[in-house]
């Protein structure tokens, strides 16, 4: 056959195919007289409430799955082999662990544990009219406790394990929780605030070795281990007291970016709607899948994901962000991380985790240098051209070759078998999304939703390789844009309608617990009885019905001369700098420029200092050097120009920080989102110096 066909004609045809002027319709306008622009998922005329016939609650969903997949594997946990402390060159100590293989419980075994735990709750005197709180890291006992509560129609109050004492005390007292389920680590925090807790009568410790200082003496509670509760329930079984769809399943306390956390009331019907909608989007979910669970289960993204995995017969293997890969900070050198051992096919992630994976790969490639580095960037560019439709290498021998020679090693970082990644919780940069598509060879579904909508909102389609967008409405949701004249965003804007994003559907929650004023402000019910949540986010609809998040009301600040700056938009553009681990832009109306607090990437900055021959005695000193400030600022300017930012949006001055922002420090949420007000208060002196210098 004429080679001209392969060399010219087929690539041109492929380009035309992918560059069509008539993009595939993914979301379509609804017939409505409501103000604004409303779009629904193309495949469903009305919002989906359940994907399982005869199932209307999470408790029914779990029971049905256990009946169907009885002997299949459900929950897996790695056993601790050893634990030791390592001391770094600057004297800091770090815990390192060696973990063994996964030990599994079947669906039938988990169902027995759930039933026993539910009966144990009843035997302890916890009735359906009282609330139980779960305050622990993600683990198999968390899942069992949740399902045990659902089986007895007990509302579960969820709180991040990293929640501070004030917020924890507020959450427990506001909900009048009588039982708290926690780990040994979290028990210490509860002991510290025991005198401030009004309603807690009993603690259930997920670990057997309960610390002596947590005993009931002086604290006003009884304490029992998780294993003993199950044993008590097995000896005193009671029938299930299954909930109805309108019953409140969870009161979920966010870690909040400002002030005390708010409790969002989610019904069984609310969460089931999101779980059902995602099932219709991700193809071929089933018992062959293995899901890596490591995000906080107190976050709706993880809670919904694990309920979905259990519903379709998949296996759930537990890990943690600190033990995720072979090079994770807590993994002992020479031993294996969670992903390597589990070899998952599915995982959920927040952008901060994916950014770390991408940065780690590029740093390793650049450090290797030579032919391997050239080969990596050549293959990366060819695959990028293929995904963008400008090169025929999307198929055939070349793709197989690059996968075998280059990307196989990258895929091994997450176990080598990932077929789909769900990203949510914050905006994902286009660079990271392309990296996942190319190097991991797996589609990445970027979702948009909030705790108030049970994580439901939009979700990008499996076959959509575009970046910077969050997809069409989920089948459980309507997405509406309404005018925000003050910010200059209107639904009649050209070429795309723009405005505040409002989400409607069965996944929209009841509101905020004991906060009627805030509920009325953010939730509305239309004449058809549909609940709508006003997000405060600004978006625009593309021609194919996909949504793009472009701003947030609270993040927009007016400078001295009247120009507006979107803090979140700028931070998303600058955080891709290799020198940046985290960043907060700051602006105020009394100045004509912005400043930034930058948590520096220690490995990148130290590598640069070594090449430049810059002496320093510690990382903190390196961050304070003028040369470091100039180098990082130049990098930020470079990224800003690539992103098309205006000069006034680029920070004129910055402060380099050596200590990372963690959930434990209270400066980021458990989903690693910036807590802007907390950072501002913590570094207010540094910010004042930046403006006065």
Automatic annotation (TrEMBL):
Keyword presence, Hydrolase: no
Keyword Nucleotide-binding (UniProt): yes
Molecular function as annotated in GO: ATP binding; long-chain fatty acid-CoA ligase activity
Family from the record: Belongs to the ATP-dependent AMP-binding enzyme family.
AMP-dependent synthetase/ligase domain: residues covered: 95-513
The protein's name in its UniProt record: AMP-dependent synthetase/ligase domain-containing protein
Organism: Vicia faba (Broad bean)
Keywords: ATP-binding, Ligase, Nucleotide-binding, Signal
Top-level taxonomy: Eukaryota, Viridiplantae, Streptophyta, Embryophyta, Tracheophyta
Signal peptide from the UniProt entry: 1-19
